[in-house]
Specification:
12 helices, mainly alpha
């Protein structure tokens, strides 16, 4: 169980997130930092963007503060997360070419790989080939970083996924007695709870790339935190289950566009969640569908997998 001091700190995080997003939204309105709708947008009116910078700031500040007291700060994660947030924030403001974003995402992935570790698996003796596991880890980090960004296309969906995935990691932390993971995941949950009040349809502010890319990178790197610790061998399966809906939608959409010989790197409205909106489902319903299915997948994991 969490200590009273930790619970109080989480309450403070929630309050700072809720009011911080509102203050930031007003700042965006004064400086006309808007997401202008186009033919690929799911919104129809200019809306403040970049609110995810509050999620980034609070998450990193409270993560570092907690680890200063109780553990060891993973500076490699912090470094990777910061450069992801910086390039994404610049993209929110002035639009950065995709090649430069990919370069920075790749750099952040390599920082995690060589600073924290790689995904290790012993299927078909692949554990004997470190280069294969490096490639798998690289693809996992870069893909989820971008997938989370691609999936942040309607009101509430990205924050909902962060909340459900965060709750899953809280439970995982309890099961494995990893208190640092539990607290970190709880911070992710409450920062997104504070944000979603402003982002629920009709959204008053969008998370922006700064928030979505940061969350994708964070959920990709979280299982690497457990390298070398006495936890379940199913950590990576769990990490996939925690964000399964976003992975499934992004992969299916990517393959469909490849088969249709479409330019998969260009913006579009062919994700499953976008198709549901086009067919008449409201943003609220789609976000709730994805959130509910995410909870079901996570529940199935805890029912089937023997944690030890």
């Amino acid at each position: 169980m969490m200590a009273i001091s930790e619970i109080i700190s989480l309450l403070i995080v929630f309050i700072l997130s809720y009011f911080g997003v509102e203050i930031f939204r007003r700042w965006c309105l004064k400086r006309e930092i808007f997401d202008i709708p186009n033919d690929r947008s799911s919104h129809t009116t200019p809306t403040a963007r970049g609110g995810g910078i509050i999620i980034v700031t609070l998450t990193l500040v409270f993560y570092i503060s907690y680890e200063l007291i109780y553990g060891n700060i993973n500076w490699f994660y912090v470094a990777g997360a910061l450069i992801i947030a910086i390039i994404s924030w610049l993209d929110d403001l002035i639009s950065i070419r995709s090649i430069w974003r990919f370069a920075v995402h790749s750099l952040a992935a390599f920082i995690a790989i060589f600073g924290i570790g790689i995904i290790r698996f012993d299927i078909f003796y692949l554990d004997q080939f470190a280069w294969i596991q490096i490639i798998v880890t690289f693809v996992w980090i870069v893909w989820l970083t971008n997938a989370y960004n691609f999936m942040d296309g309607i009101d509430g969906i990205a924050a909902t996924q962060a909340i459900t995935a965060g709750i899953a990691w809280i439970l995982f932390g309890f099961y494995t007695n990893e208190t640092s993971i539990t607290y970190f995941a709880a911070v992710l949950v409450v920062t997104n709870l504070g944000f979603i009040f402003h982002n629920w349809s009709p959204a008053k502010i969008f998370m922006g790339d700064v928030g979505s890319a940061f969350l994708g990178y964070t959920f990709a790197v979280l299982p690497l935190f457990l390298i070398g610790k006495n936890v379940t061998k199913n950590t990576y399966i769990f990490a996939i289950c925690a964000v399964f809906l976003f992975l499934f939608d992004s992969i299916v959409t990517f393959l469909r566009r490849i088969l249709n010989r479409e330019k998969f790197w260009e913006a579009h409205r062919s994700h499953i969640y976008q198709r549901l909106v086009i067919r008449g489902f409201s943003h609220q319903k789609v976000s709730l569908i994805y959130g509910t299915l995410s909870i079901i997948v996570i529940g199935i994991y805890f029912l089937i997998v023997n944690l030890r």
